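User: My advisor, Dr. K., asked me to get a structural model of this assembly before our group meeting. I'm new to this, so sorry if the format is off. These are the inputs:
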Amino acid sequence: MSAELTTLTLASVLQVFQFVVYATLANRELGPGFTMSPRDRPPSREMSTRTARLGRAYENHIEWLLLFAIAVGVTELSGQNSALTAICAWIYLAARILYVPAYALGWRPWRSVIWAVGFLATTMMLLAALV
Amino acid sequence: MTETTILALYGLLVLLTIMLQVLGSLQSLSMGYLLSSRDEPREVGRMTARMNRALDNSIVALALFAPAILLLVVLERTSATTLMVAQVFLLARIIYLPVYALGVPAIRTLAWLAGFAATAVLYLLAL
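Assistant: The format is fine. Below is the predicted structure of the whole assembly, which you can bring to the meeting.
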């Protein structure tokens, strides 16, 4: 398996992991009475700051995983794997792993810097496929 | 130009939209807030709110468009027709963004519809 496909698989596992952590904490804090309901009303108890941050980190990764998957898909389908795309893929994965503690612990401005690294790695991969 | 190229171009368009959305939100939110963990929500300006909605919509469109293209390529069902339909999708989504930002009502809906219909046609052609 190519580096691009390996990192895509690992990034998807990271997404599952982020979901499990967030869902577990949110269920404990909001109570299953709310989470199992149709959620018509806002929850009576509030989530902790850290759990809300993990939720935003999870939602942000949904967007990025989609863009990264497309970058990998385009690279693989057009057979344009190179050292550059492999390095971009690993950088993307590393950035998205670091993004989770960066958000949860409020590393400022490093969360934004890490986000920008993921942004650049994905953009480079897509541009490399076009050139 | 192939369908895969169109997909790469649309991916880049979404990345550009994200960049514009971040730069635009600097008008109503401070850099300090953007760099923070954003624990308390803040009001954004009208233009930023429009860019947020346009971006959300572009991401949904991307999630639906990408599998259609991957299916067509993997199943080897690409043709002159699928290429043209993919081009229509890209054009519609390019028009969608400035039209949303400027608040042109009917054309925005038409551009959205063209992108939606193009995606649906691609799935039908993949079957």
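One thing worth pointing out at the meeting: Chain A has five helices and no strands.

User: Perfect, thanks a lot.
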